[in-house]
Amino acid sequence: MKNKSELLHEVESLDLVAEALRTSAFTKEGLMDLLAAYHREENKDNLPPLLTQLPVMLARKAKDLDSSKLDNILNSPKGEWVAEVKLDGVRAKLHLGDGSNRIDSRHRSDVTYEYVEKTNCLPHLKNMRHYMPGTVLDGELLMPVNKITDGKTITDSVLTSTTATVNSLPGRAIELQERFGYCNFYAFDILFYCGRDVRQLPYSERYKLLCSAHISLVSYPHFRLPMQWSESFTKLYCHIIKRGGEGIMLKRLDWPYEGSKRSKGMYKLKKEEEIDCFITGFVPGEGEFSGLVGSLLVSVFEDDRSLQKQEIAAVQPGDLGFRNKISLADGSLCEDMYGKVVEVSYLCKTKNDRLRHAVLERFRPDKNMYDCKEQLR
User: What is the distance, to the nearest Å, from the Cα of residue 287 to the centroid of all Cα atoms in its chain?
Assistant: First the structure.
């Protein structure tokens, strides 16, 4: 994508400065809108009608918050924030129209400066019937399979299979979907509802409209809403990471839709780092885990010379069956667990080098405790 100075140079070369001054189009988005309109006028006889050019709202990274602010979000009272599982696909906007629908991406073309249209790659979404013309939904496209292996295309994740499909020429995209399954559209926000601009409404109100759209389209198996949680965000995050997911999205219920910017109303909390450490203790279980190991304490060696152990986190060991296996009759940890190496993922470190939101990923029988050195520096 061209930077702002390159866009300004093109505006000058096309004698569009006066128009830019008239419309105050000197933001990056404004310059691209101006150039898109110019190129469309030059080629209007060969193009379909212009879609409403709508930039999407982007999430900030939760790891960039200081510890107290992140804790305030994760422990906020019910009704202030909600969470969804972070989807790892291709961002798209679904424009519901009269007779047929159109789909475009979050990215603009470097040639036309319009948001890149993907409609012809997704005929099953194009042809969905509905009663809400003028509705625009923000969401994610995801293929239903990780692997596509047909000689021409080889993928190993939902992201790569979706990207390979959506970025193909229409004929190829349809061929792949006929063989491996059609892309699903997960709608997680709404910008227009039946022609009404709803971007300034708080997310709680937009979500009600989104649910209304879902009711209208519920009979279509490839149109879906992500599940939402209104509490226990840390527990949800740990569960998602343990199952191999990317993380969660945190959304503030009283926030408007802020297109083209990273909003303080939406954060992504995702696994960022991994570290090998060894088991040095345990925390007794409580509640349903009373009489069993509750958490495993894990450590690393501070340096090569002193081999001084430094405890860095407490992690959940697993399900009830595994807890029974590693717990002695008095609820303490089996001796043979001490010193075993485990791989732990975490969001970030505190000032005291402890791991925030640490999750046990797997045991590492191929390593010994003396491999766990100098990893926090």
Answer: 33
What is the DSSP secondary structure assignment for residue 183, as one 8-state letter?
P
- Predicted local confidence at residue 364, as pLDDT: 87
pLDDT score, position 111? 85
As given in the structure block, the two tokens for residue 241 are 């990471």
Task: Report the DSSP beta bridge partners of residue 193.
Answer: 196
Report the domain count for the chain. 3
Same domain for 242 and 252? yes
**Residue 299 and residue 228 in one domain:** no
pLDDT recorded at residue 376: 45
Find the CATH number of the domain harbouring 345: 2.40.50.140
Supply the pTM of this predicted model. 0.74
Q: Which residues contact 164 (CB under 8 A, 6 or more apart)?
A: 148, 153, 155, 176
Q: Which pLDDT does position 377 carry in this prediction?
A: 43
Same domain flag for 60 and 163: yes
**CA atoms of 318 and 62, how far apart (whole Å):** 25
- Do 133 and 217 lie in one domain? The reply is yes
Would you say residue 175 has pLDDT above 80? yes
